[in-house]
Design goal:
Length: 455
C-alpha cells in the first residue's frame, strides 16, 4: 500500500500532516540528517582553523563557501542518497560520513583533508549536537511564537473582560464571585512563567569522543587543550557545553526540556477543561461555522471541539514526553542504544503539543462572552455574600458570626431580601451596614478587576 496521508500510521503524518509542517525541518529524518551534515562540516572547518593541527591547512574562501552551500542547499535527494548508503552499512552516521567524503572528493583542498572528516568523533558527538540544534531551532521558530500567541490572546481577553463579574465555583458549588478577566489572568501568569523557563532553558551538548575522555584526540595531539577547543566549538553554536559525559551526553537536559513542556501542557489542559465547563454553563457562546456539523443526529449542537481536541493532544504529548524524560537519562554503563530509537520520537510529543496549541487558539477565537448569562447566574447566588457579612461581623466582635451565616444560608435558597433583612438586624455601625447593604453578587469582586487589568 502506498504511503499517503490516508495510509499513514501516525495522525501527525496523516490527518494532521499540514499542521505539523513547521516541525518537519527539525524533527524529520531529513532534518536529523541535515543537522548531522552541518555538524560534520562545522567540525572539519573548526579543525582546519586551529594552528596546532599542522597537518590541516585553513580552507580558502571558495572552499568555505562550497562547504556552507552543502548545508544550505541540502535536499531530500541528498538525504535519500545517504539512506541508500545506510542500507549497505546499517549505520546512519557512518553513511552520512561516507556521503560527505564522496560529495567533497572533487574539491582538491578537502581531498587533502579527507581523513579529518569525523576526526576523533564518536557518532554520539554528531548526534547530540544535531538534537541540540533541533531543539534550538524549534524553540525559536515554532514553540515560542505559538505559545506567545496564546499568551497574547489570554492577556488581551483578561483586559477586555476585567470588569465582567462571574460566579466562582469551588468543588463545583457556588463560591465568591470573581471576574472573567481575572480568571484568564491567572492562566496567563502561570503560562508565562513556564514559557520564560522554556525560553531560558540551556541546551547542553558535548564533543569529547568515545567515552567522554578525549582519548582519541590526545593520542594524535597530546599537548593540545582539547576540552577548551571542544567547549569553544559547542558554544559557537549558542549551546551550553557539558564537560562531564560518558559516550553520550547524559540527556538530563532533555528531561528538563520535556518536563518544562509538560508543565506548560498541564496548565493548558487545566484551561481547556475550564473553558469546556464555561461553555457548558453558557458563559461563553461559540460562533457557529458555516457548513460545520456538530452532531450526526442532533442538528442544534455546537460542540467545544477545539478545546476537546487541544486537551486530547496535550495528554498524548505529555504521555510521550513523560517517557522521554524518564528513559533518556538512563544508559547502561558508558552507553547503550535504547536512547537512539526513543530520541527519534522527540518531534512526536512536540507535534501533538503544536496541534493542541493551534486548536486552543481556534477555540479562543471562536468564543464570545454572554454577559446576560453570567449576570443571571450571579443573581441566583446571593448566598455568596455570607462570606463578607460574617467577616464584617467578626471585625465588629459579633459572636458566632460564621455559625449564624451557616444557619441562614447553607443548603438553602437565598435571595436579596433575605440577605438584606439579616444585615438590618445585625448590631453593626451604620457605616458597616451601609457597606454591606450596597454589596451584591455582581460587585463583590475584591481586587479582581485591578488584578486582571495589571496582567
Amino acid at each position: 500500500m502506498a504511503q499517503t496521508t490516508l495510509t499513514a500510521l501516525s495522525p501527525l503524518d496523516g490527518r494532521y500532516a499540514t499542521q505539523c509542517d513547521p516541525l518537519r525541518p527539525f524533527f524529520s529524518e531529513f532534518g536529523l540528517i541535515r543537522f548531522r551534515v552541518q555538524i560534520e562540516i562545522d567540525w572539519l572547518v573548526a579543525l582546519s582553523m586551529e594552528p596546532a593541527i599542522k597537518e590541516l591547512s585553513p580552507f580558502s574562501e571558495d572552499t568555505l563557501l562550497a562547504l556552507e552551500a552543502i548545508v544550505k542547499n541540502f535536499s531530500v535527494a541528498d538525504a535519500e542518497q545517504i539512506k541508500a548508503i545506510e542500507a549497505r552499512t546499517n549505520h546512519d552516521v557512518k553513511a552520512m560520513e561516507y556521503w560527505l567524503r564522496e560529495r567533497l572528493a572533487s574539491n582538491p583542498e578537502v581531498l587533502l583533508a579527507m581523513e579529518f572528516i569525523h576526526f576523533a568523533c564518536t557518532s554520539e558527538d554528531i548526534n547530540n549536537l544535531s538534537h541540540a540544534l533541533m531543539l534550538q531551532g524549534v524553540r525559536e521558530q515554532v514553540l515560542l511564537p505559538k505559545l506567545n500567541a496564546i499568551l497574547d490572546v489570554l492577556i488581551q481577553r483578561a483586559h477586555d473582560y476585567a470588569n465582567q463579574p462571574m460566579l466562582s465555583r469551588t468543588h463545583g458549588q457556588t463560591a465568591t464571585p470573581t471576574s472573567v478577566g481575572k480568571e484568564l489572568a491567572n492562566v496567563a501568569y502561570r503560562l508565562n512563567r513556564q514559557v520564560q523557563q522554556l525560553k531560558q532553558l540551556p541546551i547542553l551538548a558535548k564533543i569529547n569522543g568515545a567515552v567522554g575522555n578525549y582519548s582519541a584526540h590526545y593520542s594524535a595531539y597530546p599537548h593540545f587543550d582539547w576540552p577548551k577547543f571542544s567547549e569553544q566549538f559547542v558554544t559557537s553554536h549558542q549551546l551550553t557545553f557539558n564537560p562531564y559525559t560518558t559516550q553520550i551526553e547524559p540527556h538530563d537536559n532533555l528531561a528538563e526540556w520535556m518536563h518544562t513542556l509538560m508543565r506548560i501542557n498541564t496548565i493548558l489542559i487545566d484551561f481547556d477543561r475550564d473553558m469546556w465547563g464555561y461553555i457548558s454553563l453558557g458563559y461563553f457562546k461559540q460562533k457557529p461555522k458555516e457548513g460545520e456539523v456538530g452532531s450526526s443526529t442532533m442538528p442544534h449542537k455546537v460542540n467545544p471541539i477545539d478545546f476537546e481536541n487541544s486537551e486530547g493532544n496535550l495528554g498524548i504529548a505529555n504521555a510521550l514526553m513523560g517517557h522521554l524524560a524518564e528513559k533518556l537519562p538512563i544508559s547502561r554503563w558508558q552507553r547503550d542504544l535504547t536512547d537512539s530509537t526513543v530520541l527519534r520520537n522527540l518531534g512526536v510529543g512536540m507535534g501533538h503539543s503544536l496541534l493542541a496549541y493551534e486548536a486552543l487558539l481556534r477555540g479562543l477565537n471562536k468564543v464570545e462572552l454572554d454577559p446576560q448569562r453570567l449576570q443571571d447566574d450571579l443573581l441566583k447566588a446571593w448566598e455568596v455574600l455570607a462570606e463578607p457579612i460574617q467577616t464584617v461581623m467578626r471585625k465588629a466582635g459579633v459572636d458566632n458570626a460564621y455559625d449564624r451565616l451557616k444557619e441562614l444560608t447553607r443548603g438553602r435558597s437565598i435571595d436579596a431580601q433575605i440577605i438584606q433583612n439579616f444585615i438590618q438586624d445585625l448590631p453593626l455601625s451604620s457605616e458597616d451596614k451601609a457597606h454591606l447593604l450596597a454589596m451584591t453578587p455582581l460587585n463583590y469582586l475584591g481586587k479582581a478587576v485591578e488584578l486582571a487589568q495589571q496582567i
